[in-house]
Specification:
The structure is a single chain. The chain is built from 27 helices and seven strands. Strands 4-3-5-7-6 form a five-stranded mixed beta sheet, sandwiched between helices. Strand 3, helix 25 and strand 4 form a beta-alpha-beta unit. Helix 6 runs parallel beside helix 19 and helix 18 packs across helix 19. The longest helix has 27 residues.
C-alpha cells in the first residue's frame, strides 16, 4: 500500500511538471470534430436560435427563455444552457456559430474531464484511451456541433462526477454538496434527464466513503435536499409569478414549469404518452420530425457532395424510406423497438454502440473476483460508479417510448470510461496469462469487430464494401493471432494489441466525421452518411438529387416549384391512402402533412449538389424568410406589437432571427399549446397588438376555435401582394398558407 501511495504521489508530481503529449492530439481531434465548419451553420436549431435572439433584447426575455421578443411563449426547456448561449452571442455577436460554440467547447471539455477522471485511478493509458473513445463516439460531436442542450448537460454531469470523486478522496462534505448542487444545475438544463446519473452517485458514495452509516445517510439526505432546492429554484419563481407578467411556459398544458418537467419532459418520455389533456402533444412529436427532416444540406466546399449524389442516383426514386438494414423505420424518430437488445438495433447502434461488446468484456474483467463482502479497491469502486451510470441509462433507452437519437450521448461517458479502463485491464490479464481472464481481450476484439460489421452493413452503397470487409477481416485476424500468441512476450504482441484498438476505433472515427463530411442536422442531430437528413437511417435514394429526402422546404408565402408524384406528401390520416406511422409517416414510409391540412405538399430536395452559398441555413425550420411577405408586413405595420401571428414556431422562428421583431407562435412549438383563447385574441387585436395572421394546415391541435374565429372575422390578403413566386425559395414544413388581416374597434 505504501508503494502504491508513493507511485500516486510521484505520478501527481510528474503531472504538475509536464503536459501529457499523447493527450494533445486527442484534444485536437476533439476540437476538429466539434468545431470545424460550425461557422457554416447560419441558423443552427432555429427554434432555440430564435430564443437567443429574443433573450438578447431584454432581461425579462433572458430570465424566462422567451421564444419570441414579445415574451408571448417560452421554449420547451429550462434556461441555463440558453443563458450561456446568449452570453456567447453577446460577446461574439449573434451568429449560428456563436450559439453553437458553448456546446462545442463542452464536448471538448468532456473529453478532458474523462481523461482526468479515468487516469487518476486506472492509469495514464486508460485515461488516454477513454478520452479518445469519448472524442470518437459518433453522437458526441454530432450533438456538440449544434445548439441542442445535451453536450452541455453531459459536461455538467462530468463536473459533478469530478466533485464527487474529490469528495470521497478528501473526505470533505463540502464537495458532496457541490456535486449534488451541480446536478441541480443540470436539472435546469434538461430537467429529469439530469437525474439519470443519481443511482451512480448514491451507490458510489455509500460504497466508497469510510464513514459510519448514520453520517452517510445524513450527508446524502442533506445533499439531496440541496439538489432538489437548486433544481426547482427557477421553476418555483416562474410558477409563482402571475401568468400575465411572464410568457406562457411552452409545451406545457397548464402553464407550469413543474408540469413540463415531470410530464412532457419527464414521465411521458418513458411511457411514450405524448397526448396530454386532450391537446395533441403527439402533434409536437410530428412537428419535430417533420421540421427536422426539412433541413437542407448545403456545404459548398464538401467533396462528398458529388459522391453522395452519385450514390443516390443508383436506385429508384420510388424506393420507400428505410431504416438501416432495409426495413421500414421502427418507432418514432427511428429509435427502434423497445426490448433488451434495442441499443444494438439499427438506428441506435451506429450512434453509440460501436464499443459495447468490448465494454461488456471489460466489465467482466474489471469485476472478476470481486466479493460482495469485504473491502473494495479504488478501481472496483469507480468501476461500480460507471456501471451504475451505464446500466440505468441503458435500461431507460431500451424501454422508453419517446426520445431522440442524440439523447444517447448520456451513455458516452460510461462507455468511454470502461473502454479505457478495460483496455488496460484486459491487456494486463492477457499479458499475465491470467487463466480464463486472459481470453477476454481477444474475445472482446472479435465480438466488437463483428458488431461493427453488422452496424455498417446497411450502408454498403454509401461507404463501399472495403471498410466493412476490412474491419471484419482485421478484427478476426488480430483476435486469432492474439489468441495464438498468448504465451509469447515480445514487442510484436504489443503492436498487435495496439493495432486491434486502432481497428476498433477506425469506423467510429469515420462516423464521427460524417456531420462534417455530409452535413449535419441541427434539430435532430445524428451521425452517419445520412447525418444531414436527421432520420437515422441510410441515405435516402433517388434517380436524381432533386427527388430524394425531405430538405429544401419553402417558407410562408412561397409558391412550390415543379411537382412530382414521387415526392409529394401523403394526404392526412383518414384518407384512402392508409394510416400514419408515428411522427407523420405513412405506412409506405412517406411523410404526411399535419392533420387538417388540405394541401398536397411537394416533397422537397434532400441532398442537393453544391450550394450557391457557403452558409447552411438549416435548423429544422424554414431556412429562409419570404422577403416579399416581410416587406409587406413591415410596410403595413401601424404600431402593432407583433409583426404577425402564426400557428406554431416553425413559421415564426426565421422571421425572429432575421428581424429581431416579435412574431407570435399562437400555439407554441407545435401549435398545440392551449395558450390563446378567442376572447384573449380579440382583446389583443383591439389593443392594437396584432392584426396579421399567417395560417396553414399546421398546429390546429389546441387552437382550432381560434383559427376558425380568425378566418371568420378576417380579410384575406391577395397572394399577389405578399407571396413569393421564386422557385429558389425553400418551402416550409407547414406548406403554403394564407395571410389574413383583422382590425377590430
Amino acid at each position: 500500500m505504501k508503494h502504491m501511495n508513493s507511485e500516486v504521489k510521484e505520478e501527481r508530481t510528474s503531472n504538475k511538471k509536464r503536459i501529457d503529449l499523447f493527450l494533445v492530439p486527442i484534444v485536437l481531434i476533439a476540437a476538429f470534430l466539434n468545431l470545424f465548419k460550425i461557422w457554416t451553420d447560419e441558423y443552427a436549431n432555429a427554434y432555440y436560435t430564435a430564443a437567443v435572439k429574443s433573450m438578447l433584447q431584454s432581461l425579462h426575455n433572458f430570465f424566462y427563455a422567451s421564444f419570441d421578443p414579445g415574451g408571448y411563449v417560452t421554449i420547451d426547456k429550462p434556461p441555463v444552457v440558453f443563458w450561456i448561449q446568449t452570453i456567447s452571442a453577446k460577446i461574439f455577436g449573434f451568429h449560428g456559430w456563436s450559439v453553437i460554440l458553448p456546446q462545442a467547447l463542452a464536448g471538448i471539455g468532456s473529453v478532458l474531464l474523462l481523461y482526468v477522471l479515468v487516469k487518476r485511478t486506472f492509469g495514464v493509458w486508460a485515461g488516454r484511451f477513454a478520452a479518445l473513445a469519448m472524442a470518437l463516439t459518433p453522437i458526441v460531436p454530432a450533438v456538440s456541433r449544434t445548439n441542442n442542450i445535451d453536450s452541455m448537460l453531459v459536461f455538467t454531469l462530468l463536473v459533478a462526477t469530478w466533485m464527487l470523486f474529490r469528495a470521497v478522496r478528501t473526505a470533505k462534505f463540502g464537495w458532496v454538496l457541490a456535486a449534488f448542487a451541480m446536478i441541480g444545475v443540470a436539472f435546469n438544463m434538461k430537467m429529469l434527464q439530469a437525474y439519470m446519473v443519481l443511482p451512480a452517485f448514491y451507490v458510489f458514495y455509500v460504497v466508497a466513503t469510510k464513514i459510519n452509516w448514520k453520517k452517510k445517510i445524513a450527508f446524502l439526505t442533506t445533499a439531496t435536499a440541496l439538489m432538489l432546492a437548486v433544481s426547482v429554484s427557477w421553476a418555483v419563481v416562474v410558477d409563482s409569478t402571475s401568468a400575465d407578467k411572464r410568457p406562457y411556459m411552452g409545451s406545457s398544458q397548464t402553464n407550469s414549469v413543474l408540469e413540463l418537467a415531470f410530464g412532457y419532459n419527464g414521465i411521458n418520455r418513458l411511457t411514450g404518452n405524448t397526448s396530454v389533456t386532450g391537446s395533441s402533444h403527439k402533434q409536437s412529436a410530428q412537428t419535430e420530425q417533420q421540421t427536422a427532416s426539412s433541413e437542407t444540406k448545403q456545404n459548398s466546399n464538401s467533396s462528398a457532395d458529388s459522391s453522395q449524389s452519385s450514390n443516390q442516383r443508383k436506385s429508384s426514386s420510388s424506393q420507400k424510406m428505410q431504416a438501416p438494414g432495409g426495413g421500414n423505420q421502427n418507432g418514432m424518430f427511428n429509435t427502434g423497438n423497445p426490448g433488451p437488445f434495442r441499443l444494438f438495433q439499427k438506428g441506435l447502434s451506429d450512434q453509440i454502440s460501436w464499443l459495447l461488446p468490448f465494454v461488456i468484456f471489460s466489465i467482466v474483467g474489471l469485476f472478476a473476483g470481486v466479493k460482495f463482502k469485504g473491502s473494495y479497491t479504488t478501481k472496483q469502486k469507480e468501476s461500480l460508479f460507471w456501471l451504475a451510470w451505464l446500466l440505468p441509462v441503458a435500461v431507460f433507452f431500451s424501454i422508453a417510448g419517446f426520445f431522440h437519437q442524440y439523447y444517447l450521448i448520456m451513455l458516452a461517458p460510461p462507455i468511454a470510461a470502461f473502454a479505457g479502463a478495460g483496455a488496460v485491464a484486459l491487456w494486463s490479464m492477457y499479458k499475465q496469462h491470467n487463466g480464463w481472464k486472459s481470453w477476454l481481450l481477444p474475445g472482446g476484439i472479435l465480438t466488437t469487430a463483428a458488431l461493427q460489421v453488422y452496424i455498417m452493413s446497411p450502408y454498403v452503397s454509401s461507404i463501399g464494401v472495403a471498410p466493412i470487409a476490412g474491419v471484419g477481416a482485421l478484427g478476426v485476424i488480430l483476435a486469432l493471432v492474439l489468441a495464438v500468441r498468448k504465451q509469447r512476450k515480445n514487442s510484436l504482441t504489443n503492436y498487435l494489441g495496439a493495432a486491434a484498438m486502432v481497428v476498433l476505433l477506425a469506423m467510429p472515427a469515420y462516423w464521427a466525421m460524417t456531420p462534417i463530411i455530409y452535413g449535419g442536422n441541427s434539430m435532430l442531430p445524428s451521425a452517419g452518411p445520412d447525418s444531414s437528413s436527421g432520420m437515422g437511417g441510410p441515405p435516402s435514394t433517388a434517380t436524381n438529387s432533386k427527388q430524394s429526402g425531405f430538405n429544401g422546404m419553402q417558407p410562408p408565402g412561397s409558391s412550390s416549384g415543379n411537382s412530382s408524384s414521387n415526392n409529394q406528401m401523403q394526404p392526412p390520416s383518414g384518407s384512402s391512402n392508409g394510416g400514419q406511422m408515428p411522427g407523420g409517416l405513412s405506412n409506405n414510409g412517406q411523410m404526411q402533412p399535419p392533420s387538417g391540412s388540405s394541401n398536397s405538399v411537394q416533397m422537397p430536395n434532400s441532398f442537393s449538389n453544391k450550394s450557391s452559398s457557403s452558409k447552411r441555413k438549416s435548423g429544422g425550420m424554414n431556412a429562409e424568410v419570404n422577403q416579399k411577405l416581410l416587406n409587406y408586413l413591415t410596410k403595413n405595420n401601424t404600431g402593432e406589437k407583433y409583426l404577425f401571428a402564426t400557428t406554431d414556431s416553425t413559421s415564426a422562428a426565421p422571421y425572429i432571427i432575421k428581424t429581431g421583431k416579435p412574431v407570435m407562435a399562437m400555439g407554441g412549438f407545435s401549435g398545440s399549446d392551449p395558450i390563446l383563447t378567442v376572447s384573449k385574441l380579440e382583446a389583443m387585436i383591439k389593443k392594437g397588438e396584432v392584426k396579421y395572421f399567417y395560417l396553414s394546415g399546421m398546429g390546429k391541435g389546441g387552437q382550432s376555435d381560434v383559427i376558425t374565429w380568425i378566418k371568420e372575422n378576417s380579410k384575406e390578403i391577395p397572394s399577389s401582394k405578399w407571396q413569393s413566386t421564386s422557385s429558389s425559395v425553400q418551402q416550409g414544413p407547414s406548406g403554403n398558407g394564407m395571410l389574413y388581416e383583422i382590425t377590430l374597434k
